[in-house]
DNA sequence: TGCTTTGTTCGATTTTTATCGAACAATATG
DNA sequence: CATATTGTTCGATAAAAATCGAACAAAGCA
């Protein structure tokens, strides 16, 4: 599998980022990554099928919320916290700290 | 016209708030209110028809993002910044400061 | 009362997103 | 090579949101 391309942080846009975060499955992914740092897709799938999850990861990736690194068969995801904070200061902190 | 009912700040939920903010028309409304403090609907309508705008105000109101006060024929809107910040610290600041 | 202003509600579309099974691709391992 | 593991892609459907004209409602004013 070829590496994904990720948007440059200079091109992050607020609305796609907010839309990416405004979904229960994706917010859960984001919060889990906020705790564990990095995780592959499989460990983040709850009850939903793989194809649904793949879609959610794509939305998160394309908006800039997370980065996916390929290692063997696994795709390891992590939040792009520094870049997000540079572009939207305080946003991810607010999301991750929210009750 | 009877007064609107607004959700209590204790019942604000993150996903509806994010969804409310993740729309171009609504984000523009929010940013405008962030600058001017209070405004009636008419001054916030750009090119879109009234019925569309009424819908956007409803979404913002029901999620807790803004409050609508009726004064005569006009409906005056303002952000619920203190309450939002109490529940989601830093969130609205991040939104309003974002490039 | 009749007219104007401000905004809502209704109803019908259209557009956008989410969902998920099935087939596929890439890597690793026996 | 055969098989398992991990995740993507495709395609069809369903669900959710946005859009907007037209009719309506409330308040103010001549």
UniProtKB/TrEMBL annotation, chains A, B:
It comes from the Bacteria. SMART domains: HTH_ARSR. Residues 16-93 form the HTH arsR-type domain. It comes from Gluconobacter kondonii. InterPro entries: ArsR-like_HTH (IPR011991), HTH_ArsR_DNA-bd_dom (IPR001845), WH-like_DNA-bd_sf (IPR036388), WH_DNA-bd_sf (IPR036390). This is Transcriptional regulator. Transmembrane segments: none annotated. Gene3D superfamilies: Winged helix-like DNA-binding domain superfamily/Winged helix DNA-binding domain. Pfam families: HTH_20.
């Amino acid at each position: 599998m070829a590496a994904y391309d990720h948007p440059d942080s200079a091109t992050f846009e607020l609305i796609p980022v907010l839309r990416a975060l405004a979904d229960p499955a994706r917010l859960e992914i984001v919060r889990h990554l906020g705790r564990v740092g990095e995780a592959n897709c499989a460990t983040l799938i709850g009850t939903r099928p793989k194809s649904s999850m793949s879609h959610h990861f794509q939305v998160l990736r394309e908006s800039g919320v997370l980065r996916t690194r390929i290692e063997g068969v696994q795709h390891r995801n992590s939040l792009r916290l520094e870049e997000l904070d540079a572009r939207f200061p305080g946003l991810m902190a607010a999301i991750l700290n929210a009750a």
